[in-house]
Design a protein that fits this description.
With 306 residues, the chain is α+β, with helices and mostly antiparallel strands. It is built from twelve helices and 13 strands. It is globular, with a radius of gyration of 21 Å.
């Protein structure tokens, strides 16, 4: 194995974060410090931001390898940074179908690469039921089934393996329908702002519901632009509220599942401290929906619209 293989693996790409940089290669990071609970806003290097050592490392009993350089970078980031720059400076109605598909794949994978999602892809606890099913259906000789599943059970990286399969299926759907198809079939709105109003976070995509059924998907792609996908006319609620409230609502969604937020300066401290990771602090979807509804009504009252 090469000693030069990448170790610092980004789950929010550097090319994504750079739109929010405070100065060359740096960004303002907002977070609660775990040991003290104190809220902090601090300028940090993008190179070490939204990353984890060996996040995309696959380890087996007889060796290990990383998929950042072999899969994540070439399959997502190399094409992704180009389509990201395009959406930041143009509007989708004029795009080709291939361009819309490329953006949908990029955004779907932007969620899938988050550590929480990769952890959720770990099907290790289900391998025993799979073992039983394969033997009952005569998938292969019992000894062969045991040999394969024992090998996989010896790996702590099953979530990363599933993530690798997910990435490849989005571009070449041999296993199941791509999740990005959900974005392509949805209602979509693009919102631009005249000043830097939108926050980025360590969990920049906000999705509520199932990609292939009923859902809302919100993502700020720059400090001045956001995209909203929805399978219902509810997306038009965004159209009905004033622009200043709309920007705050998008920011609320960007903070919903994140532990860290990012902006160009420290001007968003109050808002981020109040709402960072708000969805994780509520029990269920009904409480989350009520939180958003109360937020909108309060912002409308403060803006003089209600």
């Amino acid at each position: 194995m090469s000693n030069n293989r990448p170790k610092n693996h980004h789950f929010v790409p550097q090319h994504f974060l750079k739109a929010w940089q405070s100065s060359e290669g740096r960004i303002c990071r907002y977070r609660f410090i775990r040991n003290t609970g104190k809220f902090e806003s601090k300028e940090v290097a993008i190179r070490k931001t939204a990353s984890i050592d060996d996040l995309y490392k696959i380890q087996f009993p007889d060796g290990d390898y990383e998929i950042e350089s072999s899969l994540v970078t070439p399959e997502i980031d190399e094409a992704g940074h180009k389509i990201l720059e395009r959406i930041r400076t143009s509007f989708m109605p004029a795009w080709s179908g291939d361009e819309k598909k490329s953006l949908a794949i990029y955004l779907t994978c932007l969620e899938a690469r988050h550590p929480d999602v990769i952890d959720a892809m770990d099907v290790g606890p289900e391998l025993e039921s799979l073992r039983k099913k394969m033997k009952e259906e005569g998938f292969a000789r019992d000894e062969s089934v045991d040999e394969v599943l024992d090998y996989f059970q010896g790996s702590p990286s099953i979530g990363v393996i599933a993530f690798a399969c997910f990435l490849q299926n989005e571009k070449n759907p041999l296993l199941a329908q791509p999740f990005s198809d959900g974005l392509l079939s949805a209602n979509v709105r693009e919102y631009t702002f005249n000043s830097d109003a939108l926050i980025c976070s360590s969990y920049p995509t906000s999705r509520w519901g199932d990609y292939l059924k009923d859902y809302l998907f919100v993502v700020a792609v720059s400090p001045r632009k956001a995209i909203v996908y929805s399978t219902s006319s509810g997306v038009d609620v965004m159209e009905a509220i004033p622009e200043s409230v709309r920007a705050k609502l998008i920011n609320l969604y960007s903070l919903s599942k994140a532990e860290i937020a990012y902006f160009k300066d420290k001007s968003k401290s109050g808002f981020i401290e109040q709402h960072l990771s708000w969805a994780h602090n509520l029990k269920n979807f009904e409480e989350q929906r009520e939180y958003v509804s109360n937020f909108i009504m309060e912002e409308l009252r403060e803006a003089g619209y209600a």
